Amino acid sequence: MIASLRMIARPRFGISRHPAPHATQRAAAASAPAAIKEGSCPEVHALMGSGKRYLDVRTVEEFVAGHAPGAINVPVKLAVAGGMAPNPEFPSAVAATFTDMSEAIVVGCKSGARSMVACEIMKASGYNDLTNVTGGWMAWDSAGLPTEKGAGAPAPVIKERTPSEVHAQMGNGKRFLDVRTVEEFVAGHAPGAINVPVKLAAPGGMALNPDFPAGVAAAFADKSETIMVGCGGGIRSMAACEIMKASGYRDLTNLTGGFSAWQSAGLPTEK
What we know:
Structural class: alpha/beta
């Protein structure tokens, strides 16, 4: 770790005149979450050169327009009408990408504000070696450090395709993610489909599956992969696509009409 990284913590003011802390106080201090560090862009660039990973928490659109080479994008906030709103899937998406909470992670955004919010969320989840990029992407770009864009890819757009079109895509090797419940999936599904429920049966209706992002990340490690997504009628699968898009997936197709339309089209099924 670079010596010049600045700790966000209360400074010391000389030798304490109070008695030595009790053993329980020392234990509490030892178990307290580590402070979030601040690192300048050159310092962070050096950390990345030594193998540390960079988490960019800007929106997908900002990320695609330009980012630090090799950075991983998980938006902490999403663009909504009138401003920005917290991304409810941020903690689970981070957990799926950074499974070791002791890993040293550098976190950046446009200017350093959103990334500090992200660091606080991650710290509360148990991550204990976090460095916020001082000045964010603007400072990185101004410092003349290496940058890259989304390999020329446009900002992701969720496509809609008919059952016949999705079937043809699957014939070309594209994978199908079925986001219905396990019970619905077992009763019948498209051949070769992968089941990760986006919602679960709950008292009074359906509730979001908190493990959906992690389940998707385990099944689809390459976020540039072309993925077909379907459910019963096309509603849950669109919600799943939005969650996946926010997590960085770039090539998503929603099955119009869902499995009901698939069956009505007389396409192959299996149980």
